[in-house]
């Protein structure tokens, strides 16, 4: 079975992430969305909320599961039996950043990284812009998956 890990911070999960996972399912049998625990970075959404958003987004897709991890992505990927790492690319800046990580990951573990280019309309979408909009009580609905729009709005309002 071809199983890929899609690692990230997903703070929060966006339509860009969702689209990469959905298209990744045309290539891989199973995708594990893995939320990295970064003790130095306090995000906007708690780990529980991030996991919930992703589970809700893929609640009808049994080929997508969600995990948290800390430490090296490749170590976790191998531990759970992933054969590939999946990442999304928006711009050439993404590519340069991702290239080094993918090459080091390959050297360390033998695991290859597969990249999917985002669809043109998702090029400007990123979690930090969504956080900024929410922080200032704007409407970020069009940037987050349909299944979690209402809930993100509700949580953001309570802040
Ligand atoms: P990280 O903190 O590791 O960059 P992110 O949560 O920002 O994690 O993103 C995880 C993955 O999703 C990365 O491969 C990133 O390039 C990709 N990604 C982020 N936003 C988009 C988007 N709008 N379209 C396609 N891929 C995206």
Structure description:
This protein is an alpha/beta fold. It has helices at residues 15-24, 47-57, 73-79, 92-109, 127-135, 149-157; strands spanning 3-8, 30-36, 64-69, 84-89, 112-117. The chain has a 5-stranded parallel beta sheet, with helices on both faces. The longest helix has 18 residues, at 92-109. The termini are far apart. The model has no long low-confidence stretch (mean pLDDT 95).
Give the helices and strands, then pairings.
Elements: E1 3-8, H1 15-24, E2 30-36, H2 47-57, E3 64-69, H3 73-79, E4 84-89, H4 92-109, E5 112-117, H5 127-135, H6 149-157
Parallel strand pairs: 1-2, 1-4, 2-3, 4-5
The structure holds adenosine-5'-diphosphate (ADP).
The site of adenosine-5'-diphosphate has 16 residues, from helix 1 and strand 4.
Give a quick set of tags describing it.
binds adenosine-5'-diphosphate; five-stranded parallel β-sheet; alpha/beta; 19% strand; 6 helices
Provide a brief overview of the structure:
The chain is an alpha/beta fold and 159 residues long. The longest helix is centred in the middle third of the chain and has 18 residues, at 92-109.
């Amino acid at each position: 079975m071809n199983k890929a890990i899609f690692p990230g911070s997903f703070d929060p999960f966006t339509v860009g992430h969702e689209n990469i996972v959905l298209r990744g399912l045309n290539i891989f049998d199973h995708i594990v969305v893995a939320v990295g625990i970064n003790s130095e970075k306090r995000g906007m959404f708690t780990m529980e909320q991030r996991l919930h958003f992703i589970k809700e987004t893929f609640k009808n897709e049994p080929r997508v599961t969600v995990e948290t991890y800390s430490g090296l992505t490749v170590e976790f990927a191998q531990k759970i039996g992933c054969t590939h790492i999946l990442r999304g690319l928006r711009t050439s800046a993404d590519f340069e950043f991702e290239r080094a990580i993918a090459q080091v990951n390959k050297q360390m573990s033998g695991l290859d990284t597969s990249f999917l280019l985002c669809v043109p309309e998702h090029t400007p979408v990123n979690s930090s812009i969504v956080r900024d909009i929410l922080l200032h009580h704007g409407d970020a609905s069009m940037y987050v998956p349909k299944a979690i729009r209402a809930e993100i709005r509700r949580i953001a309002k309570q802040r």
